[in-house]
Specification:
single chain; 469 residues; Beta-Lactamase; five-stranded antiparallel beta sheet; 15 helices; elongated
């Protein structure tokens, strides 16, 4: 229906006869259709439209349903400099300033949806010398008329003070629009019904989602586990509360290929009217995926043994302490399995440290593959591993778990040019009572040394009859 204004000059078209005054019997368009002046004059809907103040120059323009100009009075020359036959036969947007076209299109649709009602729009029209002039267009839709379905427009110059106000508003609107697009965050505005009234381009990039009518649709790629957090934030801001730093995860997709998860932070502020009632909200979305990934990497480095990918000693003891503190809330007791690789110094001396590192990596991998989902494996020392096993019902069951894990561990390790027999001494401690991590580890360590004395690859359970630790 609407086209973008071309850079070329407007070509001339023929119009005969021209509409000079209301005394003409009719107005003939380029298509040959005659618009009877008497019909327009007698129509109450346009009485106020065609009237203008005595000292003002105004021109009557007639358009069809597609906004094509089908007639214009000779006053168009005084208003914009065009001859009528240079104006006719073009869509209105051929003359409207590109920056004003969105409001012109919106005003057009609003006008044709309300037949008979007067609608006013202000904007810039191209003059015959290529300049831009501010005009006011008062429009009435008579498209429901079965004989002459037209839109009638009265155009006049806008007063200087009105132009200044309009220019100021336009400049402010452009400033806010350009500023929001330059920001490194996504920005949006919603009304009280959660309808999206504004977004910047950055928001679309962050969410991987095109413009949507509602905030729920705009945020439709949110992780299901975080949807309740978004709902709570929206309820809060529309209840006139500020919302800060709500972390949300989004899954962006492209066709059938799933892309990486994005992590964002949402903040919002309510908008209110003069009475203090909430009319909507503004919000911003920051993509913190890179920061979250860095944070996770730092956490892994701080908690993980670099060689084996098992927990390090400090984190292993922290996990054990956490489990013991929650002992009352978990079934059974907590077991600790202390594993010492036998003859590891000989492996380093005979085959080199590269082979020794490979043995440690294989041992860590086998242990992590053999444990239950809620057990945790840590590298406790050079060739020592510690496994924390919560939810173990009895001491006897902890012994069985240790034997099963050890069986998966003590298989030969095949290197590039050698085979290393992997053996281990294993000690187990278990408690269902409130105790501390150091005590349970010391008991498992004591049982491990009992295993060494009894022979490699044996598993020993610490019992209260053992000597004090």
């Amino acid at each position: 229906m609407f086209t973008t204004a071309p850079s070329r000059s407007i070509a001339s078209t023929s119009l005969s006869p021209r509409w000079n005054t209301p005394s003409h019997a009719g107005l003939t368009s380029k298509t040959g259709r005659t618009v009877k002046w008497d019909q327009l004059r007698d129509n109450d809907k346009v009485t106020n439209v065609v009237a203008s103040e005595p000292d003002e120059v105004s021109v009557v323009i007639v358009r069809d349903a597609a906004a094509m100009i089908i007639s214009a009075g000779e006053e168009i020359t005084q208003v914009l400099g065009w001859l009528p036959d240079e104006f006719v036969g073009h869509p209105s947007t051929d003359f409207v300033h590109p920056e004003d076209q969105p409001t012109a299109v919106a005003a057009w649709f609003e006008m044709i949806d309300r037949p008979g009602e007067t609608r006013t729009w202000q904007g810039r029209y191209r003059t015959s010398d290529g300049a831009w002039k501010w005009v006011e267009c008062v429009n009435v839709s008579m498209l429901e008329d079965p004989v002459n379905p037209i839109v009638m427009t009265t155009m006049r110059h806008v007063a200087v003070d009105q132009v200044n106000v309009a220019e100021e508003l336009r400049a402010r609107k452009q400033l806010l629009s350009r500023l929001s697009d330059a920001m490194p965050i996504g920005m949006f505005q919603i009304d009280a019904n959660r309808t999206v009234t504004f977004t910047n381009e950055r928001l679309h990039t962050i969410l991987g989602h095109s413009a949507s009518a509602t905030i729920d649709a705009k945020f439709s790629t949110i992780d299901e586990d975080d949807r309740s957090h978004l709902e709570s934030a929206l309820d809060a801001v529309l209840a006139n509360d500020a919302v800060d730093d709500v972390e949300l995860r989004f899954s962006r997709t492209s066709g059938e290929r799933s892309l990486e998860e994005r992590v964002c932070v949402l903040s919002m502020r309510p908008l209110t009217d003069e009475a203090g009632d909430v009319t909507g909200a503004v919000g911003c979305v920051s993509d913190i995926t890179a920061q979250v990934l860095l944070r996770r990497q730092l956490e892994v480095r701080a908690n993980t043994d670099e060689l084996t990918s098992c927990l390090n000693r400090v984190r292993t003891l922290e996990v054990l302490t956490e489990e013991l503190e929650n002992q009352e809330n978990t079934p059974g007791g907590t077991a600790v399995i202390f594993i010492d690789l036998c003859g590891f110094k000989t492996v380093n001396d005979q085959f080199g440290h590269a082979t020794g590192d490979q043995v440690l990596r294989v041992a860590g991998s086998r242990l992590q593959s053999a444990i239950r989902p809620y057990d945790r494996v840590g590298r406790f020392g050079g060739d020592e591993f510690l496994i924390v096993c919560p939810r173990v019902e009895t001491a006897a069951m902890s012994l069985e778990i240790a034997k099963r894990i050890t069986a998966s561990l003590t298989q030969p390790v095949h290197g590039t040019s050698n085979v290393v027999e992997l053996r281990a001494s294993v000690g187990v401690s278990w408690s269902s009572a409130i105790t501390d991590a150091d005590t349970l580890v010391a008991q498992a360590d004591h049982a491990m040394y009992e295993s060494k004395r009894n022979g490699s690859s044996s598993v020993m359970l610490f019992t209260p009859t053992d000597r004090n630790i």
